[in-house]
Write a structure and sequence with these properties.
This protein is an alpha/beta fold. It has eleven helices and 20 strands. It has helices at about 20-25, 80-90, 110-125, 135-145, 160-175, 185-200, 205-215, 245-255, 285-295, 315-325, 390-405; strands at about 5-10, 30-35, 45, 50-55, 65-70, 75, 100, 105, 200-205, 220-225, 260-270, 270-275, 305-310, 310, 325-330, 340-350, 355, 365-375, 410-415, 420-425. Helix 3 packs across helix 4 and helix 3 (about 110-125) runs parallel beside helix 5 (about 160-175). The radius of gyration is 21 Å and the shape is globular. The structure holds guanosine-5'-diphosphate (GDP), 6-O-phosphoryl inosine monophosphate (IMO) and magnesium ion.
């Protein structure tokens, strides 16, 4: 019996809590696979009183017996990967038999990070707010057909290929004002880290995944970033350099669209964004500061404070559509526990006109969110284990989100820990 690939991905600007949900659902699968992005991602898992942050390794790694695949669509920095693997060793996690890396995945070179830094510095106030992990330059080399791939590591001329690409990058760097970067030290670390990468199980991941599906094994694809950071559909140019939507699973793992099953869209109960770029429901007042404080909104990769705002249903309808979301997962609902009132934008008002569509350019126009106000529940929900036990105000908020998106909310995350999750399968969504 052939199985399907289920997908978990972010519906906002990243950091929706994807890692936690992947970790929670992982025991229902045989393989968890990353399909795009790279170490710009920071996925947090909390269990047994400890917190773990993964950047490149899939979030199924802590569950025993589960295969974890870094797919061809991912860009890999051997330095970050080696650090993650050492951290897994320190945590006593057995990963060697269970971690697979696509031969076709592209490598992030030290000069890719150098270029990222120089390009961002040259942009000045216009900077994207990149995580400076070399993501953009690496994907540029991939599409420009210059990149180095994991499979090149065993090539007799690997060092020559490396030097050729590095020379190209050094030429490019001359276009930018100088930035501080210790290339020699970074190169040393990079070549040392290759030792780790070389010992991993390097595979033709498309065969691995499709053969697993043919055998009836269940595969969960783990997205990084969020749909509003998608290179095509996001708030361009303030986006990342990969496609983050569900269609990207096919490209990043080598599976046919017919093999995509459930699409779990993850959304925070409010909105955050780290880095620059438009954010229509952003709150720059004390309410935004309160969301940031209650939600501990600091980046898992860079530690930067995340910008905060209310939920944006216009934005979520757009990304639910782009991804074909079949189930919605609401996270960080507990962060709203103490709020007297809660808001969500149902429309945008642009030059006096109401719209429920995300416009082409959010930068140079003034967007006024049209709010719907909800009463807060003002109580702790930490001990709630069944949907029915939620306060009625919270159920009302969830219901309004379902109705706006016409997608059922099937899981509600009520805290960072693994077990803090309420399934909502029992409540009726038949009228949606
Ligand atoms: P990801 O990139 O989508 O995996 O999300 P991040 O790990 O970058 O950010 C999500 C943050 O919220 C992490 O610190 C999680 O531990 C935390 N988190 C996840 N779910 C919940 C939740 O339901 N409630 C609270 N309070 N925190 C959560
Ligand atoms: P996860 O998987 C939040 C943002 C950066 C910047 C823009 C481009 O943890 O949700 P890049 O480094 O890709 O060139 O940065 O995208 N960004 C993220 N924001 N979560 C992420 O990943 C992100 N990955 C990139 O802040 O604005
Ligand atoms: Mg994150």
């Amino acid at each position: 019996m052939s199985a399907k690939v289920d997908v978990i991905l972010g519906l906002q600007w990243g950091d929706e809590g994807k890692g936690k949900i992947v970790d929670y659902l992982a025991p229902q699968y045989d393989i968890v696979a990353r399909f795009q992005g790279g170490p710009n991602a920071g996925h947090t898992l909390v269990f047994g009183g400890k917190k773990y942050v993964l950047h490149t390794v899939p979030s199924g790694i802590f569950r025993p017996e589960l295969g974890n695949v870094i797919g061809n669509g991912v860009v890999i920095d051997p330095v970050t990967l080696a650090q993650e693997l050492q951290a897994l060793d320190a945590a006593g996690v057995e990963w060697r038999r269970r971690l697979f890396v696509a031969r076709k995945a592209h490598l992030i070179l030290p000069t890719h990070r150098y270029l990222d830094a120089a390009s961002e510095a040259a942009k000045g106030k216009e900077k994207i707010g990149s995580t400076l992990r070399g993501i953009g330059p690496t994907y540029m080399d991939k599409t420009g057909r210059n990149g180095l791939r994991v499979g090149d590591l065993i090539h007799a001329h690997f060092r020559d290929k490396y030097e050729q690409l590095k020379a190209k990058h050094l030429q490019l760097l001359k276009l930018y004002p100088p930035v501080a970067y210790d290339l020699e030290a970074e190169e040393r670390r990079w070549f040392e880290s290759l030792k780790w990468l070389r010992t991993l199980q390097i595979v033709d991941s498309a065969y691995l995944i499709n053969e697993a599906l043919d055998k009836g094994q269940r595969v969960l694809a783990e997205g990084a970033q969020g749909a509003m950071l998608d290179i095509d559909f996001g708030t361009y140019p303030f986006v990342t350099s990969s496609n983050t939507v569900s269609a990207s699973v096919c490209i990043g793992l080598g599976v046919s669209p017919a093999r995509i099953g459930e699409v779990f869209g993850i959304a925070k109960a409010y909105t955050t964004r780290v880095g620059s770029g438009p954010f229509p429901t952003e709150l720059t007042d004390e309410v935004g500061a309160r969301l940031q404080q209650e939600g501990h909104e600091f980046g898992a990769t860079t530690g930067r404070p995340r910008r905060c705002g209310w939920l944006d249903l216009v934005q979520l309808r757009y990304t639910a559509m782009l991804n074909g979301v079949t189930q919605l997962v609401l996270t960080k609902i507990d962060v709203l526990n103490s709020f007297e009132t809660i808001r969500a934008a149902t429309h945008y008002r642009i030059e006096g006109q109401l719209t429920q569509k995300v416009p082409y350019d959010l930068m140079d126009i003034s967007i006024e969110p049209v709010w719907k106000e909800f009463l807060g529940w003002r109580s702790s929900i930490a001990d709630v284990q069944h949907y029915e036990a939620f306060p009625k105000e919270l159920k009302h908020y969830i219901r309004a989100i379902e109705e706006a998106l016409r997608v059922p909310v099937t899981m509600i995350s009520t805290g960072p820990e693994r077990q803090r999750l309420v399934l909502a399968e029992t409540h009726s969504t038949s009228s949606l």
